[in-house]
Amino acid sequence: MKELVENHWNYTKHAKFYEYRPNYAPKAIDVLKEYVEVNKKEDFRVADIGAGTGNLTIMLLERGLSVVAVEPNDSMREIGIEKTEGAAVEWIRATGLETTLKENSFNWVTFGSSFNVMDRDGALKEANRLLKKDGYFSCMWNHRDLDDPIQKQAENIIENFVPNYERGTRREDQREIIEKNRALFDEIFYMEVDFYFNQTLENYILAWQSVKNKYWDLATEEGQELFEKITNTMRQKMPERFDIKYTTRCWTAKKV
């Protein structure tokens, strides 16, 4: 079978740690559901692209939506299938650029923390192909509030060991790339919702193992050593349990 995941974005070793990350702010999903006019359309269907282990998929299902979840990584998809057993969802092994789904067959195409790991121009083109007339595209992420005292503490520890630490395109304003594709999408709607997530330090550290970056590769001895230095310092300096502040940021646009 054709390899669907580029090695650079292969999250096989990270999948089991996604459960330690907070899900999106429920209010954000509620507002988006209202905004995309779910209740005004019969047979409303959602394609959740890069569905991972099902975090956003589950929130959509909880709100009574019919979902097709597209995820190329076998390990993540298997976890998602297990977590959504018995729900109104179909899981597809495919990428966000070649979903294999029928054109003009969805009312809403969502990308939960996945839009940044693929060619975004290509992803917007594929989302446009999938959507019915007046359908919507949404991409969203949870961002740690770097001004939160706990987050500052963690960031200072990381930057002490990785002075050039960068967070990548997931923190960029997505408006520019959407506006670049105005022939496909317009009427951009941006929203952000703050929330607090109560977490133990050990679970917080486990959540960091879901992060794939260029600084510590846990498959290598060097990466493990760096990660252990960072997390051992966190254990020494951070409290055992805390409320940690996040912001769910969402960009939505309407099919042209």
Report on this structure.
The chain is α/β, with parallel strands linked by helices. It has one domain: Vaccinia Virus protein VP39 (Rossmann fold). The chain is 32% helix and 26% strand. It has 8 helices and 7 strands. It has helices spanning 26-35, 55-62, 74-83, 120-130, 149-161, 175-180, 201-208, 221-237, and strands spanning 45-49, 66-70, 89-92, 106-112, 131-144, 185-200, 241-255. Strands 3-2-1-4-5-7-6 form a 7-stranded mixed beta sheet. It is globular.
CATH architecture: 3-Layer(aba) Sandwich
Sheet with most strands: strand arrangement: 3-2-1-4-5-7-6
**Major beta sheet, specifics?**
7 strands, mixed
- The number of helical segments is 8
Q: Can you tell me the CATH topology? A: Rossmann fold
Low-pLDDT residue intervals, each spanning 5 or more residues: 1-8
Strand content: 25-35%
- CATH class designation: Alpha Beta
Break the fold down into its secondary structure elements and pairings:
Blueprint: H1 26-35, E1 45-49, H2 55-62, E2 66-70, H3 74-83, E3 89-92, E4 106-112, H4 120-130, E5 131-144, H5 149-161, H6 175-180, E6 185-200, H7 201-208, H8 221-237, E7 241-255
Parallel strand pairs: 1-2, 1-4, 2-3, 4-5
Antiparallel strand pairs: 5-7, 6-7
Helix pairs in contact: 5-8
